[in-house]
Amino acid sequence: MGITDKVFDALTSMIKLEDKVKSQSEAMKTQQLKIENLTERVIRLETQLEMLMRAAEMKQLKN
Questions:
Q1: Alpha carbon separation from 53 to 38, 45, 50, 59, 62 (Å, rounded)
Q2: For 33, what's the count of Cα atoms within 13 Å in the CB-facing half-sphere?
Q3: Parent domain of 51
């Protein structure tokens, strides 16, 4: 194997790695968006739960 072949193989490997990094980056962005969406949903659920608990407390106090 000559120097040219080694250089070509190295460049090919670098291109493949770059493609893998880009793919992983996109996957990470997608996962981050999903996490942020779930976080927003949990916050809304927590808020509703707190409001219901306070309403139940107020109802008990009135009775």
A1: 22, 12, 5, 10, 14
A2: 5
A3: 1-63
Please tell me the distance from the alpha carbon of residue 29 to that of residue 37, in angstroms, as a whole number.
Answer: 12
Q: What is the pLDDT of residues 25-45, one digit of tens each?
A: 999 999 999 999 999 999 999
Give the model confidence (pLDDT) of 45-55 as tens digits.
Answer: 999 999 999 99
Q: What is the DSSP letter of 26?
A: H
Number of structural domains (the chain) is: 1
State pTM to two decimals: 0.67
Q: How far apart are CA 7 and CA 12, in angstroms?
A: 9
Residue type, 21: V
